[in-house]
Structure formats: structure tokens, C-alpha cells
Fold this protein.
Amino acid sequence: MFGKKKEDEMVPREDGLTDYDIYIMGKQEKILNMAFAAIVLFLVGYVFYQNILLSAVLMVFCVKFPKIRTRQIIEKRKNQLTLQFKDMLYSLSSALAVGKSVEMGIRDSLQDLRVIYPDPNTDILREMEYILRGIGMNNTVEEMFGQFAERAHLEDIDNFVDIFVTCKRTGGDLIEVMRSTSNTIGEKIEVRQEINTLISGKKYEFNFMMVLPVIMVEFLALTSADYMKPVFTQPAGIAAMTVAIAIFALAYFVGSRVMKIEI
């Protein structure tokens, strides 16, 4: 329903509202992430090259890490928002089931959510408060939920809003829509958690396999220095190590993609 923004379009919204496909990393946070990546790259480079200069050259790739970290933060935040949205739907459907209007149901669900999420900066709390303010300014519930979906960039919320708007216009059963949507989201989350449990062992194995080449090279460098010396000093050896690092990075990228399962 709504497309994702490209990385070069990551700029704050003019209205100041949260776009969940955008995370602007602060200067200090960016520096800390780059410093962390630079240290890791230097250590890996030194293990493979045993040369300070070549290891330092490898550190230039640390500039890519803030973008990687930004994607991780965005993904985590959207996963949390999905869980929070499911809780909101459960609460809202319960309010509608006892005969309350949608507007009153939203107010009641906000109170319930404040108990579940004590932090006032929780995303779903801020979104519900904004929806209520919009309704108070004579905006329709459909418009406010539509704006939320546009900024959330989540399929579950998009689907809910589409069905919600249709029901409001045609007089459909909102209670059943809420119940069905919350159950569907809940089932998807449970399936995702079950899959994560099943592959958690594989993730540990994957992480170990990523560290193992570094350990093996360092072990050989310490125990068989004469044997490994040509690898660290001859052009052919340095080239071979460079290829090994490239394969190492490619394996990490492919493995990370394989471990990421979308439901």
C-alpha cells in the first residue's frame, strides 16, 4: 500500500510526526557506531594481514556501519510497533463489544495501553494520543488511522485500515473486523516466534562459523609463525587474504539474509 523510502530520502517529516521507515542517527551515536566498527575491522584486518597499515585501510569500511545499524533499529522498532498495535486492537475490540463507539473505544484502549506500556514515549501511546487529538479537531477516525498507516509502513496496519475504512463506509461489523485482524496479527507473531525458536540454534552456529576463520588464522599465526610468514609478507599471500576477507563478508551477508524470514 505504501512504498518504502530509499536510504537517501531519510529526512524528517515536515509535520514532525514519526515515519517508521526513517531513523535519523545523531552525530554522537553515528561516531560511536563507526568507532565500534573501525575497531572490529582493524582487529579482523590485523589477524588476516598482520600489518598495521593494511588493517588501517580496512577501517575505511566503518563508514557503512551506521547505515546497517540504522536498518536494524528501524526493523526492531517496527516489530515492536506491530506487537503494540496487536494489543491496541485487542483492547479496542473489547470496548466495541460492550457497545462503545469507536472514539470512546480508542480512549479506553489508550488507558489500557498505558498500563501495559508505562513509558509515555512508547510509540503506540503517542500514536493513539495523536489520533485522539485529531478526532478532537474534527478529523475522522478513518483519516487519522490512514495517516498512521501511511507512516507505519506495516502490512498488518495497512490491511486493518483498508478493512476499517470499508466497514465504516458500508456499515460492516467493526467488532468482527477488530477481532479477526488482532487474531491474524497474533497468529503471525506466534508463527514468527516459533520459527525464531527453531532457528535460534542455527543462528548461534552461524555466529560461531563467522568467528571461527578469524580464530583459526590467529591460531596459525601464533603457533606456526614461519609457516604463515609468506602469507603475510608475499603479494600472493596478501591477495589471498584479501579474497578470504571478501568471501568472509559475502558469507556473512548471505547468511544474515537466509536467517531473516518474513511472515
